[in-house]
Amino acid sequence: MNKQTSNTIAPGEDISRRGLMLVLSSPSGAGKTTLSRLLLDEFPDLTMSISVTTRPKRPGEQDGVDYFFVNAETFGQMLNKQELLEHAKVFGHYYGTPAAPVEALLKEGRDVLFDIDWQGAQQLEHAKGADLASVFILPPTTKELEQRLKTRAQDSNEVVAQRMSKASDEISRWSEYDYVIVNHNIEDALSELCAILTAERLKRPRQLYLVNFVKRLQDGQ
């Protein structure tokens, strides 16, 4: 696919708009992390929100790139200072989204991508619903979901079993999201996700420049 960019208008025109928060959720193994990375490749002006977490690094992960890896004490301090937009405990580890960098990006008109679970999505909806567009990724079958978890070889058999036991509860949250994509294959799912982001960017309330632009049109300019 071709690289995507923000909506454009005549040279020199002010195209200021408020950024949006695009949330992706899914049961583990359904493909949201892969889709997130591919979407970032398609939209160079999209920024990934980096969460803080108390879980250990997986092979190949980098601090400050995949997550900010912190201990439980540091996470608790951030929570007490209300520095997190959302937080959740997942499989025994804490995850959260630092508030300050997200708000700064939104004010600059930058869109922010979130790879979080349904608990975090609920909290973001409560905190910043007007800025939010949420997408839930479903696997084509439960058997395929289990196979993907085993194939990625990042977790032990015990952890895979835990993730599968929790998948039904996670999937039950699908109706709380604005959009749902069934990830039969990654190319089609990515195409649908790109269409969602493009449409959300074009929503009238987000295009702050339109008020003055339309006024100039009405004035005959």
**CATH level-1 class of one domain:** Alpha Beta
How many angstroms separate the termini?
Answer: 37 Å
Main sheet properties: 5 strands, parallel
Strand order of the largest sheet: 2-7-1-8-9
The total of beta strands comes to: 9
The CATH superfamily of one domain appears as P-loop containing nucleotide triphosphate hydrolases
- Helix content percent band: 40-55%
CATH topology of one domain: the name is Rossmann fold
Structural category is: alpha/beta
**What is the mean pLDDT?**
88
Helix run count? 8
Shape: globular
What is the name of the CATH architecture of one domain? Answer: 3-Layer(aba) Sandwich
User: Approximately what portion of the residues adopt beta-strand conformation?
Assistant: 15-25%
Unreliable segments (pLDDT under 50, ≥5 consecutive)? 7-13
Write down the Rg: 19 Å
How are helices and strands ordered from N to C? EHEEEHEEHEHEHHEHH
Give me a quick take on this structure.
By secondary structure, the protein is of the alpha/beta class. The protein is 41% helix and 19% strand. A hairpin with a 2-residue loop joins strand 5 and strand 6.
